[in-house]
């Protein structure tokens, strides 16, 4: 197990190296720079700014300096927000994204799995159609439309919840729902099809034939097996929810990291682009690793450590 | 069987009804607005009529959206409108732009000007203090300005705002020591400023945030004093900063020690950072904001017609111009008659009426009418297709071509820019029979393309830093900088130089008018429209004026009883 973990960590480091390198050079290749603006700076001042931020150094030197800093987990100062370091920006905005993401994932998982299971158990009956209509709507309605509709109905018309911003739990409800809908629908469909598969398999029939209670068959045998595809979807989902919340964060005015990630690219805020990319990559790689470990827990037939590594 | 189909239908109906309900709600609210159009006049006249006689509300809290995190709240480093909207409330320069748009004495109680308009002597007001109790001194100004001009000071993009001061540009380039810059604190109360040449608008500049003082005793030697609220963040304006939650909210409180505190009514200002303009509007409608739109936020384009109809939208002129820049180095725009033909063939009134909808003024001149009033008329007739066709023919003859090449219009990706570009594409195709290609680019790519002169026609805009014609005219004095047209003209440049030494305001204005006339004869760009400020405010918000430069002073604002 330890060897397996070490090996995986090694892979993570290699992937990170490639991600950093590729992002760095792609970013430098993009036209424009962090100090480009509709109001042109006098050349002398632009020169001084480039000097101060080390943009006049040869590219390879900038690259190596950056690698050294990244190893020390130091992402440098932001170009756009004067005096704020990228580490500060990440540590102040990530908690917002994290709370929101956690709520959304909780919603997506619990309701999605529930809907999927209901749909499978009531196959081709009312429950199935109802759940699947919700799922299709959830997948096909873009989150920004849903967000605006939620805002309009619950905040403006019914005045039950605040329109935007992030101050209390009540503020998080609408954005979390808007964020959760698409993965919720996806999970429901995923769960339904794999549950149908499992319900038709021989061991379920055997269990039923043995006279086991319906409930035990469903919970102990069927769901546990049917949930595997959902578990493997979890890794990318976690990261997608955290990075992909740009639209939701913008509409609900939440100072989260997803926003920072996208805006930094438009601003050519080099250090923030690199910082958030590296941060999200680490997050993605680690969550995939965790998912693989969970896989082994859920299904004992899968040996995470592989053959000959007992 | 049937039951299954029915239940499916039912589920669908439920789902659809959610959306229908939402859409339906929208419709009805805009219809309501349409019924009473006559309130429009009431709303706007009531706005100007009040002069402080209304009773004050108990709760003097003002909620406004500033859209984004201010990139820097260091007066010497800030270079954007969001930061300046915050700084204007918490700092104060030697002068402050008053409600009529004129500079009035602020930190300075007295200003003496030498005969040749190049030496200004400021006397610092007695009783002007910093928020930590220190007196504001002339040395604070000297220190703040010289710090910005120091070549080693980081992030001082706006140092060029100080360039009218003698030797400032040279010092920033490192050619001249800082001691030789024309800023001298004679004693604690007297600041003498020597200018490189007469600058009639200098007292407007001293109200600008790059000219704000910083507390030398507190700030000297500290590099990061302005990144957070701390005991080092010392200010001298009508308000102090209570808290700064990055990317979220800034809270300002009234500064009880401010010299003019008795005229400051607002107790608390909540500045929220809500980026999405639709959200901003919803929050305004929900009562979470007292103000939406200019100068710090924006109104969604789609909401403008209905807001205009129900009379709640406020519109004021803004000193800024939206234009299409011609690249005068490439065919066919190297020919002046072709440039004119393209400029004349645009129906500006149509664009303003059906696309931008914010009562912008069609621009047939370079300097906005808020500076040169004559420019309401402009130098040529809007949508003069006949003349345009004539000029086009003449121009093509001069160039010796009988068919125009395909013309490419470049703009940065944006809904509004795209709509205008499409309209102009259509007008040029219709009126001049020319094939027009549209080319939208991401913001940074666009700036790169324009800067390299790799375009034929490009969208651009300019908003004044201060209320003076030179601000628009000097852009085109030489190639480079903000002049993307690659056009320069000796006579034009000479006129501007002449205006710089002219001390008589009327004579100077004549020279500038002459320069503008010359510019319009050469027409290196097609002006489209002059910007306007659009905003909504609750009826009980009083005493806040949006200036043509796109800023506001909350110092004189108050909340009326409601």
TrEMBL record, chain A:
Keyword terms, alphabetized: Cell membrane, Membrane, Transmembrane, Transmembrane helix, Transport
Protein name: Oligopeptide transport system permease protein OppB
Membrane topology of the entry: Multi-pass membrane protein
Gene that encodes it: oppB
GO cellular component: plasma membrane
Key word Cell cycle present: no
Predominant location: membrane
Origin superkingdom: Bacteria
InterPro entries documented for this protein: BPD_transp_1_N (IPR045621), MetI-like (IPR000515), MetI-like_sf (IPR035906)
From TrEMBL, chain B:
One of the Pfam families matching this protein, by short name: SBP_bac_5
GO biological process, one term: peptide transport
SUPFAM superfamilies for the chain: Periplasmic binding protein-like II (SSF53850)
Ranges where the Solute-binding protein family domain occurs: 102-483
Annotated InterPro entries: Peptide/Ni-bd, SBP_5, SBP_5_dom
One cellular component term from this protein's GO annotations in UniProt: ATP-binding cassette (ABC) transporter complex
GO molecular-function terms, A-Z: peptide transmembrane transporter activity
Keyword Protein transport: yes
Positions with biased composition (Acidic residues): 33-51
TM annotation in the entry: none
Primary subcellular site in the record, as a coarse category: membrane
Assigned keywords, A-Z: Lipoprotein, Palmitate, Peptide transport, Protein transport, Signal, Transport
Residue span of region Disordered: 26-56
Bilayer topology annotation: Lipid-anchor
Compartments in which it is found: Cell membrane
Signal peptide, first to last residue: 1-21
Family: Belongs to the bacterial solute-binding protein 5 family.
PANTHER family per UniProt: DIPEPTIDE-BINDING PROTEIN DPPE, PERIPLASMIC BINDING COMPONENT OF ABC TRANSPORTER
Protein name: Oligopeptide-binding protein OppA
Protein source organism: Virgibacillus oceani
Gene: oppA
